[in-house]
């Protein structure tokens, strides 16, 4: 039987496919890759169980290949990996280790089995075996492995074999991350390696410190003198780049550091021929030393060199560098604006994008109108992707900080309308949000908003574009909510009910129907007020009623209040006989019926637009259009259709009656229908306002409600439903949060103050549109001229001149003092105190990094004071003076002796240590500025001691190497560190 | 971490070498390689060699039929990584003599070995060609 086994293994060995066979087979296979691979896996499963180490390792090699390049699971072979790792032949061992680093991870159960194997290989005399083990450890090390193997790593950190030592140094990074307590043991040796004269060691150790410093820069400040020495001395660009990165991170923690290192960095920037090093210098200066004017100037000169280079890589990096510097030194961008704008039409989308970001950085209150204009023209010529990038960045920049840079909201709203019509536009959601948001926040923009919404609604072509549906939903909502600003509600109704609305998704359609309801209510209400006022004895009451309605829908018995405004409103309407026809021309496609309304009615729209015929027509129209929808399958559409139809049913009879009675008998009794209409109208007229983001938080949690309860089960139930688009608009009580514009108003207050405001704004709106027809009356004319006629597409920019225009425009943002005189002050924008600032109270989890940095601080600061005091021992001092090396050896032996001691207590109570770190970390974070200063001074003392100590140690070798450097450094170092 | 992964991919989008410096599951790797390859291979010679992807950057360079893609942290120096790719290719060139896709396919473990000498834990540790190649040559002779 034993013979049988061995013969079969021989057969296996003889006929086993090697990795090369497998690869060739994969290339030539005829049966399809997956079939071939699964066959191969089958083979491997058999072969890997073989007792023959060669067969086994070859099988594993093939498996690793398939796992690495063909995504095949190899976790099932974990135990075989361990077996092959322990093979005595190096070629097999290597395969095993490679497989382990490829497939093992923290949860691999067999990891526990390899600790001893790793320990053995780490101690091997064959440096390649050591290297394999180190390599593997750097990939798969777990907290347990790191803890158990720390002593071995510690030994290797000072081995004379460079090949091994540099790898041991690199492994330390992973070991520290997994087992922070290793810092206490290994950190000193790691630091010693910074003084190594061997370039390989230096490269490795600087790499490690670069990574360590990126996690917690502050802890590594005491090492600044060492890094400085490397910065000045090293000729290796790779090392220099890493050191620069370290300084970039240290700089914010020690202002005086900058003074020392800025000069050497600039030197490198000037002298180096390597673009990579130069770029790193630039990046360091602009990100961390941006207060140093001369350095920044030099960096900007170098950035310019990159920008005008033919190499797209350099261009890209130059643009990136500019966008880093833009917030602090906008002049650098403005200086290079021609180039930046030139690359807006580069063929690389990444470069275009960077360029776009920079252009947006140049936008300011004074040039936003013009830059947006030019960019919109750019977007018309761009491919869909970039077009949307442009639109997105315009939307984002303009809405930043609650529309901070927008002064002329009418312009902005019409820009939104224009953007919606750009063929590639896919920013529907964002535009939708902003349209609604603006409506709720900025009262003064509502008339213009309605005009824009109307423009979007009446264009039947837009309904076919699914990307615009969300915008149309917003437009429909606006038209319903702010219908009182409409010149012709019938036309709006026409648009809301046009046949092509069948192309809309149900959620949007529901908004259309609901808006139609609002418009209908508005018309009926106006009609009733009108007829009531006719019957009353005051001749002016008709106008009063309607204009009052226009001003404030919910003031029903407020006709006395508006007596002052009404005549003027009346007059202004009366002065404009062409008013109506103008409107008609612009709405040609609004349908014949609307035009008829316009023509049959007398010029002043408010008087005669709501005639009996028109109202009946309107009702018929609604019934006709919505009738078929009662069969809709969408609940929302169905529901809303029913509402409106039932409502019509309810009032239809009485409306007719009402007309019959009108003029004949003055019936004083209130009619049911008009009562209903008034009530609904009241309901609709409640103003919607923005809702604070934190509104939900203010709702007290009811007793016994378990919010933390797991609701996962619901998901299976809800999965079937389409989530209703509840975010179309927020139906919050309007003034939930505090408001800037009208705070804490009582209803009485509002009634008194609002109408005049609204009337004047309406009037200006009106004059703005039709200023042409007014006689030149001093005040109004000024308004008319200075207020940019945003409605007309006045800036017809020749697309060819885009570039030059943009260049010219951006000049404006430099001249910040030359702000344009706004004829109209910026309207009030409702802001919620807290709601708009999303404050993320990020609780920083206690990570291992904190533990690492805590340990590092302890080692660097704590133990240094210890060595400093020990230095006072006269014999010690003299020895350190005589020979630096000896001292290091003393340290090492001491440490080795301490090894056992320092290890044990750690295991005893790790929790207490952790607590300590946590506290120290918190202290660090919460320290006030003054305290930081104190701390710094403390550190400074320690650091000084340390650096002088260190300096003493290293003086000797330096003197022989480069005496000049020592001379220049001697005054440098104490000053350097604090 | 610096370097997160190194990929070598041919024009057809097949991965020829994949080295990760953080553990990813097979599915994550498959998705990542698919996304990256699609993104990078679509770009032309006149476009820059840097692509932002998720929360890191990809620096890539094409040599003949093979793309070298290196995923790095955002603060890594892009130009240095390009130089690193070039160094890697030069090193392989010196070892294989005019290296091509097939060399890497059939000597994958050697390519890995070179990478292991050059990069450890995501840090570039060795940049001298002779230092990188000496262990391999020793092993070849043994």
Automatic annotation (TrEMBL), chain B:
InterPro entries: AP_complex_ssu (IPR016635), AP_mu_sigma_su (IPR022775), Longin-like_dom_sf (IPR011012). Belongs to the adaptor complexes small subunit family. It comes from Carya illinoinensis (Pecan). It is found in: Endomembrane system. CDD domains: AP4_sigma. Its main location: membrane. One of its GO terms (cellular component) is cytoplasm. This is AP complex subunit sigma. Keywords: Membrane, Protein transport, Transport. SUPFAM superfamilies: SNARE-like. Residues 3-141 form the AP complex mu/sigma subunit domain. One of its GO terms (biological process) is intracellular protein transport. The lineage of its organism: Eukaryota, Viridiplantae, Streptophyta, Embryophyta, Tracheophyta.
